[in-house]
Amino acid sequence: MEKKNLLKDETFLQHPYLVAIFLVLSFLVMDPFHLGPVSEHEFRPVKHNIAPYKQVMKNWPRDNMSRLAMHGKLEFENEVFGPESLEFDNMGRGPYTGLADGRVVRWMGEELGWETFAVVTSNWTEKICVRGNDSTTYKQWKHEKRCGRPLGLRFDKENGDLYIADAYYGLLKVGPNGGLATPLSTHVAGKPILFANDLDIHNNGSIFFTDTSKRYNRVAHFFILLEGEATGRLLRYDPPTKTTHVVLEGLAFPNGVQISKDQSFLVFTETTNCRLMKLWMEGPKNGTVEHVADLPGFPDNVRMNEKGQFWVAIDCCRTGAQEVLSNNPWLRSIYFRLPIRMIYLAKAMGMKMYTVITRLDDKGNILEVLEDREGKVMKLVSEVKEMNGKLWIGTVAHNHISTLPYP
Ligand SMILES: *[C@@H]1O[C@H](CO)[C@@H](O)[C@H](O)[C@H]1NC(C)=O
Ligand SMILES: *[C@@H]1O[C@H](CO)[C@@H](O)[C@H](O)[C@H]1NC(C)=O
Ligand SMILES: *[C@@H]1O[C@H](CO)[C@@H](O)[C@H](O)[C@H]1NC(C)=O
Ligand SMILES: *[C@@H]1O[C@H](CO)[C@@H](O)[C@H](O)[C@H]1NC(C)=O
Ligand SMILES: *[C@@H]1O[C@H](CO)[C@@H](O)[C@H](O)[C@H]1NC(C)=O
After folding, report:
1. Which terminus of the chain has a smaller tally of CB atoms within 10 A, N or C?
2. Does the pLDDT at position 30 exceed 90?
3. Rounded CA gap, 305 and 147, in Å?
4. What sections of the protein cross the membrane (predicted)?
5. 388, 287: one domain
6. Strand-pair partners of 403
């Protein structure tokens, strides 16, 4: 088909005028029967704060050796399903990880293997929720809300409690022996938390966590990216008073959160804007937000190593074509109403999936970049955790954990 060939050419889409002409012509075949990928939503694309593509890519070091692909190893294949966040307990056991089937599981060594550690709701049943390696497919979507989807995990270093950010059940806590987690925070300012995503624990006991959007839940997260909407928040749960407070709002897909080693600031990723941000929590700049780094793709979680440096997992990548759509919300609203299936639209935008992980210092200086340039070994990475001479790499959409000897 003529149209498809045109769409295949990424450079074509980098010229706004050509895109506009193409889209105007496309009105002729526009979705009168509401078949387009976003037709069931009230789609409101907006301009968002993303750094210019060329400027970011020009300064971004490349890993010409594609070291992630070369040295990375897939472990636990078809034993874990979408292990988003990886955590180790105070005795060094683990990893613990949250799965697409709603469970938090832990690795107990070769002999015992994986065991179910916790679930986030009494609604969870094996019959309805456990779907093996189909858990990471669309087959789980209609059950997710009931079964839960544990994302960010953190152990309290003092007492061994595990804190869980669940995409549907908010912030929860479970004791060192696991079981059914207790909800801590499900509402803020009288409204339900729609999409809790990640958390970290301050030394003073406060739990900082992200709520990705007020409008879309996890299954619909792609629309947050497409719209560029910024209704996400950083929240703080205060254990003594059992209250939840809004710390920051108007964020564009706030995702990973990590408190600094000296507790003077925290960093968080804004996935839609492809960047890492910092919130000061002490000193003269207390309460102010600073930009730390622009990234070549869409960041997920951020985790600190023992030196106080930050590992960011990035799904790649931004493209020039996206940039045009990004800067022209009106183009986006037409583009994504075309009666073409989402996958072709993504392809047309030149979205080749590959993986970048990076280590940054507190000023955003790039200390290391590791890539899987073809996305052969690792795709859709969600977290990088440096532990026991290895990088442990989670993924939200695949059924394995990747590891890499490190340093
Ligand atoms: C990596 O490749 C790019 C071009 O793809 C080149 O400009 C750069 O010099 C290379 N870097 C190294 C360290 O080889
Ligand atoms: C699903 O898991 C089983 C093992 O439980 C494995 O044999 C099979 O290849 C997996 N399917 C896919 C598509 O990975
Ligand atoms: C069970 O699921 C329903 C519907 O999704 C929800 O309203 C309810 O709060 C859940 N119950 C518990 C105990 O989590
Ligand atoms: C803990 O620190 C945070 C960040 O400075 C602050 O917002 C919170 O009020 C503190 N909590 C207590 C109990 O001091
Ligand atoms: C920083 O600001 C927060 C909220 O504005 C406040 O709760 C906290 O006590 C302040 N911390 C310091 C060390 O001043």
Report:
1. N
2. no
3. 32
4. 12-30
5. yes
6. 73, 392
- Angstrom distance (rounded) from CA 359 to CA 363: 11
203 shares its domain with 231: yes
Residue 32 has pLDDT above 60, yes or no: no
Cβ neighbors of 278 (< 8 A, separation 6 or more) are 265, 266, 267, 289, 290, 291, 292, 362
End-to-end C-alpha distance for the chain, whole angstroms: 50
Shared domain for 268 and 302, answered yes or no, is yes
> Does residue 379 share a domain with residue 264?
yes
Same domain? For 296 and 149 the reply is: yes
Q: Which of 234, 263, 281 to mutate to test the pocket of ligand 5 (most atoms within 8 A of CB)?
A: 281
- Token look-up 């960047």 returns 275
- As a whole number of angstroms, the distance between CA 147 and CA 169 comes to 9
Residue 148 carries which DSSP code? -
Residue 50, domain extent: 1-56+319-351
CATH code, 262: 2.120.10.30
Is 296 exposed, middle or buried (CB count within 10 Å of its CB: 0-12, 13-18, 19+)?
Answer: buried
Ligand 5, from 247, 286, 288: best to mutate by most atoms within 8 Å of Cβ? 286
Phi, psi (deg, nearest 5) at residue 7: -65, -30
Nearest residue to 383 via CA among 284, 326, 283, 312: 312
Atom nearest to 121 CA in ligand 3: 14
Same domain (yes/no): 311, 372: yes
Ligand 4: residues with CB < 6 A are 202, 204-206, 281
pLDDT of amino acid 79: 97
What CA–CA distances, in Å, run from 202 to 118, 154, 179, 205, 281?
23, 11, 24, 5, 10
The total number of structural domains in the chain stands at 2
Same domain as 118, residue 3: no
- Assess whether 249 and 347 both reside in one domain: no
User: Model-level pTM greater than 0.85?
Assistant: yes
Structure tokens at 13: 């889409």
Which residue has its alpha carbon closest to ligand 5 atom 12? 282
Contact 45, 335 (CB under 8 A): no
Condensed to tens digits (0 to 9), the pLDDT of residues 216-266 reads 999 888 888 878 889 999 999 999 999 999 999 999 999 999 999 999 999
